[in-house]
Design goal:
Blueprint (H helix, E strand, L loop, with lengths): L3 E3 L2 E3 L6 E5 L8 H14 L3 E6 L2 H4 L20 H8 L6 H11 L2 E6 L2 H9 L5 E3 L7 H8 L5 E4 L5 H14 L4 E6 L14 H9 L2 E6 L5 H8 L4 E5 L17 H18 L19 E4 L14 E4 L10 H4 L21
Parallel strand pairs: 3-4, 3-10, 4-5, 6-7, 7-8, 8-9, 9-10
Antiparallel strand pairs: 1-2, 11-12
Length: about 350
């Protein structure tokens, strides 16, 4: 089975889901908020917290033409530059955030949006790189990130199967050995019915990689369900307050929701187990409550057993009900009383 490793943590079908708390723009311009999000992600049980590393000038142009305007959705009417000016993580925060995460014992890495971002993250010894869905078609960026030799995760929102394969090929060509992909719908928020989670097992078979889910729905149902479809990674946007007013707050999880996701995803994975038709340990004490054959009339030795003398009831100390046809017409070897289990040694 495919497997990757980030900061010593193995990730794949044989391991519990790797949960990433996406900090994104939810710092809302306050370093203190970003630091606390890291702390709360750790408390909730997330395996990692992820940043986004860009500047407005490294991701778009300060241009007011219609091409650079957002129409519809959460950010209707804003220019790309204006949005990214508000949303970006100041680069001089990165070192503090990395140090803070390491202090609290949670893995931290980022999505770079150009080569200079990768250079910054390399200076901070980032343990992995995440390529965002919108950058999955930027093959030169993927190759440059891959050249670091670090594990990579590529989100596939909006990408068709051919584009996903091109991104994978670029990562491999760049030197990436530990590669995972995330099924994603790049809507903010995205309705659950758009996710088509049956795509996940197809991705696993088609691309042969560790596969997960980048989930933009408003609750945890889709993410936890994805575990049953084979998702080994779950990424969710995370905030301290969904009503905080930031660009991403409204479709992000709050701390209690993230804690529930971490718990639910691990429970779902644990429940998958393996193919096993054997009796389970939690069932052992209840075997005696299965149905079996009991005498429901006092009957003397030498008499034949008639249908009205036996019945299939709980508990299970007698012969199994499948023996009923064989028992009817048999002769008793001993006297039996009402409420006695039917046993082989009662019969001639």
């Amino acid at each position: 089975m495919p497997q990757i490793e980030i900061a010593g943590r193995p990730i794949g079908p044989e391991h519990s889901p790797y949960v990433i708390a996406e900090l994104s723009a939810n710092h809302n311009g306050k370093l203190e908020t970003a630091l606390r999000i890291i702390e709360e992600a750790k408390k909730a049980g997330a395996d990692a917290v992820k940043l986004q590393t860009y500047k407005p000038d490294t991701i778009t142009l300060n241009c007011d033409s219609e091409d650079f305007k957002i129409r519809g959705g959460l950010w209707d009417g804003r220019s790309l530059y204006e949005l990214y000016e508000e949303a970006h993580m100041p680069w001089d925060w990165h070192k503090l955030l990395f140090e803070h995460a390491r202090k609290f014992g949670i893995t931290i890495f980022s999505s770079p949006f150009d080569n200079t971002a990768i250079d910054l993250l390399e200076d901070l010894n980032a343990p992995a790189y995440k390529i965002a869905s919108f950058e999955a078609v930027d093959l030169p960026l993927i190759k440059y990130a891959a050249s670091t030799g670090k594990p990579m995760i590529i989100s596939t929102g909006m990408a068709d199967a051919d584009e996903i394969q091109e991104a994978i090929d670029a990562a491999r060509e760049g030197g990436c050995k530990h590669l995972a992909i995330l099924h994603c719908v790049s809507g903010y928020p995205a309705p659950a019915q758009d996710y088509n989670l049956r795509t996940i097992p197809d991705m696993i078979e088609r691309f042969g990689l560790v596969t997960g889910l980048s989930d933009h729905t408003l609750d945890n149902t889709t993410a936890i369900t994805s575990v049953a479809m084979g998702a080994s990674i779950i990424e969710k946007h995370f905030t301290l307050n969904r009503s905080g007013g930031g660009p991403d707050d409204s479709f992000s999880l709050e701390p209690a929701d993230l804690e529930a996701l971490c718990r639910g995803a691990k429970t779902a994975w644990s429940a998958l187990g393996r193919v096993d038709y054997g009796r389970k340990s939690s069932e052992e004490g209840n075997v005696k409550f299965r149905r079996s054959l009991y005498f429901v009339q006092d009957t003397k030795a030498g008499e034949k057993i008639t249908p009205e003398k036996v019945k299939s009831i709980r508990p299970g100390f007698g012969l199994a009900p499948k023996n009923l046809d064989r028992i009817i017409g048999a002769t008793l070897s001993v006297d039996v009383a009402w409420g006695t289990p039917v046993r082989q040694d009662c019969l001639k």
